[in-house]
Amino acid sequence: MPEQPFEPERAIAGTGMGGPMDLATSEAETLEKTPGGPEGTGPSGKPHSLWSDAWRDLRRNPVFIISALVILFLVVISLWPSLIASGNPLKCDLAKAQEGSQPGHPFGYDGQGCDVYTRTVYGTRTSVTVGVLATLGVAIFGSVLGGLAGFFGGVWDSILSRLTDIFFAIPVVLGGLVLLSVVTSNTVWPVIGFMVLLGWPQISRIARGSVITAKQNDYVQAARALGASNSRLLLRHITPNAVAPVIVVATIALGTYISLEATLSYLGVGLKPPTVSWGIDISAASQYIRNAPHMLLWPAGALAITVLAFIMLGDAVRDALDPKLR
Amino acid sequence: MLLEVRDLHVEFRTRDGVAKAVNGVNYSVDEGETLAVLGESGSGKSVTAQAVMGILDTPPGKITGGEILFRGKDLLKFKEDERRKVRGAEMAMIFQDALSSLNPVLSVGDQLGEMFIVHRGMSRKDARTKAVELMDRVRIPGAAQRVRDYPHQFSGGMRQRIMIAMALALEPALIIADEPTTALDVTVQAQVMDLLAELQRELHMGLILITHDLGVVADVADKIAVMYAGRIVESAPVHDIYKAPAHPYTRGLLDSIPRLDQKGQELYAIKGLPPNLMHIPPGCAFNPRCPMAQDVCRTDEPELYEVDQHRGSACHFWRECLNG
Amino acid sequence: MGRYVIRRLLQMIPVFIGATLLIFLMVNVMGDPIAGLCGERQCDPATAAQLKREFGLDKPVWQQYLTYMGNVFTGDFGTAFTGQKVTELMSTAFPVTIRLTVVAIVFEVVIGITLGVLTGLKRGRPIDTTVLLLTLVVISVPTFVTGLLLQLLLGVEWGWIKPSVSPEATFSELIVPGLVLASVSLAYVTRLTRTSIAENRRSDYVRTAVAKGLPRHRVIIRHLLRNSLIPVVTFIGTDIGALMGGAIVTERIFNIHGVGYQLYQGIVRQNTQTVVGFVTVLVLVFLIANLLVDLLYAVLDPRIRYA
After folding, report:
1. Which of the listed CATH numbers 1.20.1260.10, 3.30.565.10, 1.20.1640.10, 1.10.3720.10 matches domain A50-325?
2. C10 contact B CB<8A
3. Do residue C242 and residue A166 have CB atoms under 8 angstroms apart?
4. Contacts A1 to B, Cβ<8 Å
5. Which residues form the ABC transmembrane type-1 domain (chain C) (predicted)?
6. What is the ipTM, given to two decimal places?
7. Does the pTM exceed 0.95?
8. How many CA atoms lie within 13 A of B202 on its CB side?
9. Read out DSSP for B239-286?
10. B264-309 pLDDT, tens per residue?
11. Where are the domains of chain A?
């Protein structure tokens, strides 16, 4: 069991979306607790940094390879959906509503007569974009705030802790319902903004913790004694060693944000037409579940596979970076 | 003979290969006797002890040969259930780090009392009384109040005493102490070793003391077995080894101890590192580091030559070594 | 221990204030609080002004907040625009949601921990890989999709359950919705338990317990489990927030008239009193749940009590 003083508050890291982040947090925290820096020399004498070892492990991990390939595919069709879908997701023919699979339209038509296949493909762009942007925002905002609070400590740290507590007290879906329902714009930005707003505390807590751990390392004390300035300490010594847990959590978070966007869209407060989103499609399809389940199944399947790919990637990255499994 | 380990072989099968941790170890302990097993990390001393207790991690560890005779019966042929009954009741083990070896969420009294509840069928109340008695016996002040405390509330020395108390709760015939004082301050070390020796005398137990600290051994042990790379390289009554070692490794260990009359001279250290157990050097495992190594050492593995009735040395040149 | 409780309670207060203020601001400042009152169209300025005065909405926001909180402490959550008191809506909605959540938590704990222990002890074997894969799939499928699929399969195709839950919402009707609600959390509990058990299996105190000659079941339950479950218990507590969010979705799918349903109606009809009222109570519930979990943590892990 770890010898460091226990902080129960640290163990409580709910986003309200729950599970994935909390799990990743606790698992990421084990990453922080390894003493010493990530550099070392293996028996062959060649430098074995945490990163080169991790990359070597990742390359050999089939889970990583599969999920990375899937994600690559998803990113490509996000950027160029016309590569595999020739139609227009917004051009719909009411006469064909709810019809099933036909030549040229493998997934059939939805309630408005739109081609499900095309909409599913174009929906990838929305989901991936929202997921990536939200994660980037949360990661940057959260790491900077949390990292600085961890590094400087004192009053700023206390303020940040209170702030994160307050944001944590609001379950995410609840907050989304309340906040986004008053928003009328139908672009992706309110949704992304909201996710960053409620998501940053999670990352900031991880960043703060890992910066504090990194700060206590001997090589940081040594550098400080040699007269290194704060910014140099932060950039050259602390960040490379503190960033691993943040990467792990952020990668897994990507998957959950995609899931969250779909959930919010399903509830009607997320993205709105004419944005093409799987959540919207699933929501619309839910009333036709008896007669035309295909309208639901295809976007749902795409959603599940996308989220699965990102979570698997995050799992693989975490396993590779986890020093306990060495 | 209380315990006799005969030609024990233990391997660890890992992803990267097979590590041969114990390669033909023989030693014995009688009632009331203290055997000190000496060696560096990786010598196999702890693995042998764990094999005797039956607590080896069985994947990846595996006992691949030999016998462990306890009161004449081979433990390796026992069914797990029978073996479990022997554990704790007739042979017990004391571990190095008492803080991590004690359950952090159970009170000390509960952990001590457990022995009586499981092995002797006592009630919780009776077991609790016994626990207080045990704590008194190992001289923990205020035992009656402290019996409800948790391990983290005790100091290092007291925690080790609690481990000792747990080990001798059922008055076993054999105690194996795996580096019991390594994690303690020097003054506390002496106290704990004294306690152990006293209790051993009182209960006439056999004691196997595993350590890498030659200083601790001199007071307490009757005989010594020095291990290297999973083999016994020298075994002798304790004073004989200190007077004149018959193996270059033992000599190296003794020479490495700093002495007051060596002021101003460079400290001696055995050159090189212990071998990788997956690639033990052929012939005598110590040959890469041995100042006396000859060609035969690199090809022929030395058996335990009989130096005299009670001494053995696994060195082709033990005579030369004895004579300096 | 007592000091610890008091400290946590005091910490809770500013957080509660901060969170409810945030919600209050979000609802009243960002949106238009009286938007729903005049039907589909915008209110004409005179009526709007009058309504604002009636509901005290012309006062500065911080004053509105204080008035509101003052009322909350006397049990008055205001009146929904439909004329019903919000507390009335709560009294019918909360019991239903509580039943649903209880079912979900029971599933989460019982199935999750059991599976986690099994796979933690048999790491690497086929059952472990299968369960891991299953949990991964369950985690990746959002709750609403699971709900819709199960509704389709069990309710429509096979007719094992009624696709919608009746207004009484008895326990037996809530089994499948409860399972849906629990699904993602269950998967996490399984994985967390598995990791915790696998880690603790090789720890020194387990080795000592085996060396003491204790029977296997005692080693697993009394020594291994008690230590391994500590992070799991903590997780379950914080997961309550996720369950709340999931409840909204689940109630919508199965047409359960619980808190989520009322909240959703309130939002769609822009009934700000309802929304703020329910969310305030939910935040309070969440904070209390976290507090209880912290206390439970201290009960389970004596090292915390004396910190």
Report:
1. 1.10.3720.10
2. no
3. no
4. 100, 104
5. 94-297
6. 0.87
7. no
8. 11
9. HHHHH--SSHHHHHHHHHS--GGGTTSPPP---S-PPPTTSPPSSSTT
10. 777 888 888 888 888 888 888 888 888 888 888 888 888 888 888 8
11. 1-47, 50-325
